[in-house]
Amino acid sequence: MSACTPFDMPITIRKALEADAPSLSRICLLTANAGSTAEALHDFGELPGLVYAVPYVKLPTTWGFVMVDDLRDDEVVGYIVGSTDTRAFEAYATEHWWPQLAEKYPPSLAKKPADEQYMNLLRNMHMGSDACIKLSPAHMHINILPSYQKQGWGRKLIDTAADFLKGQGLDGVWLGLDPRNNGARLFYEKMGFTHVDGAPDNNMGIKF
């Protein structure tokens, strides 16, 4: 599946593969500080991706699409990933994903607050609210490298994901938002996302 911006950038959107995991992890780190790079905040720069990106090319019930730059050796420069069944995803990850990471990353290793925060999160992972699940069993995460933002690619990724989810018989999707990232909130509002009634303030969702 291909698409072009008004500037005809050589970008292709394709399904995410397990082999994309290192790229997803890198992009997640470079956008993990409210949309900016979190490199300086971490000694363990893989932690954000291990929570918010990599599981979605590793675990059951997951789906994903990536943007690749055809002129940069098909480098992955953005992604949208998620689960079609959040409760099933949570149950599997609780048994098979978070425990092994919690063992590998004990908080005693942390010298920086951000690392400690993620290491503690691995031991007490947040779950989707019942209000979000009522809206849709599906949730998503999206990240695009800054140099590729504000060119229409976020909309194209969401449209691609929506087409896929509708094909799975789903009629909506929700997400968790960093409350510090006002730019992302404005983008989602333009896309038609609204606050999920009864959910925490940082949850937004959309019906297709």
Automatic annotation (TrEMBL):
PROSITE patterns: GNAT. Residues 11-208 form the N-acetyltransferase domain. It holds the Pfam family Acetyltransf_1. It comes from the Eukaryota. PANTHER family: O-GLCNACASE, PROTEIN O-GLCNACASE. This is Acyl-CoA N-acyltransferase. It comes from Lentinula lateritia.
